[in-house]
Specification:
Aspartate Aminotransferase, domain 2; 4-stranded parallel beta sheet; binds pyridoxal-5'-phosphate; two-stranded antiparallel sheet; alpha/beta
Length: 246
């Protein structure tokens, strides 16, 4: 049955217009509707339901969470993240990227998605354009729309030898008066493309000149399997400016 015709996933008139815009909303609900229906194909994102029963988190994380609960450490914490965690993040960035980012410059989110939402909410006004190398992570495109922005796709180039590249001149040509930001997810989900450091520097210079934001999602930075990791980071190309928000 095509996703749009699934009975429980009809558009719900009580949802705001922004939410109704998204075909993905229907897809996300379908697995729940299908749960337990014999022969139903699984289309949901994330690990299959039968693997979700057991926590895949490493022991120290589980143990720290249990210990915190038992110690009654359940009240509101620091909204920017605990000082200890922010110090650990600062140390982590020095260790991996050799950059000095003071602990007070970190803001701990409740996940990668939440970080992207907060960044987009902070910079987008209605109708602002966000340029996104594509194919792109669907959630990122939807965040732009939810924040009232317009997603402008710039296609990756797929080569016969399997290489994937992004032509920066094509990307620069997509910039208009309404462009507010360029979203770079490197290494990319879903393509695996990695932006070379020289391109990051060129993009940085272009964006500084044009007054554009770079929203960098580098969540897969250490997922590099050819011995060339971790992947280049905007941390290395922008670290010296005081105007950068990490
Ligand atoms: C490109 C990208 N960024 C961030 C995330 C992480 O999001 P979250 O921590 O909210 O699961 C994902 C997860 O799929 C992702 O693919």
């Amino acid at each position: 049955m095509p996703p749009g015709t699934y009975p429980h996933a009809r558009r719900d008139p009580r949802c705001p217009a922004t939410v109704q815009l998204f075909p993905g909303t229907r897809d996300a609900r379908q697995p729940d509707c299908d749960r337990g229906r014999p022969g139903a194909a699984r289309r949901q994102r994330g690990p299959p339901l039968d693997r979700r029963r057991r926590s895949t988190h490493a022991h120290p994380i589980r143990e720290a969470a249990i210990a915190a609960l038992e110690a009654g450490d359940t009240r509101y914490g620091y909204s920017q993240g605990t000082p200890g965690l922010r110090q650990a993040l600062s140390d982590y960035h020095r260790r991996h990227w050799d950059v000095d980012v003071a602990p007070e410059r970190f803001c701990v989110s409740i996940g990668g998605m939440n970080a992207v939402v907060m960044a987009m909410q902070a910079i987008l006004d209605e109708g602002d354009e966000v340029i996104m190398p594509s194919p792109a992570w669907p959630n990122a495109k939807q965040v732009v729309a939810i924040c009232g922005g317009v997603n402008v796709a710039v296609a990756f180039e797929f080569h016969a030898d399997g290489a994937i590249t992004l032509d920066l001149d094509t990307l620069f040509a997509a910039v208009t008066e309404r462009t507010r930001a360029i979203f770079i997810n490197s290494p990319s989900n879903p393509t695996g493309w990695r932006m070379p450091l020289a391109d990051m520097q060129r993009l940085r210079d272009f964006c500084r000149e044009r007054g554009l934001w770079i929203v960098a999602d580098e969540v897969y930075n250490h997922f590099v399997y050819d011995g060339q990791g971790p992947a280049p980071s905007f941390f290395c190309s922008c670290a010296t400016t005081p105007t950068v928000c990490w």
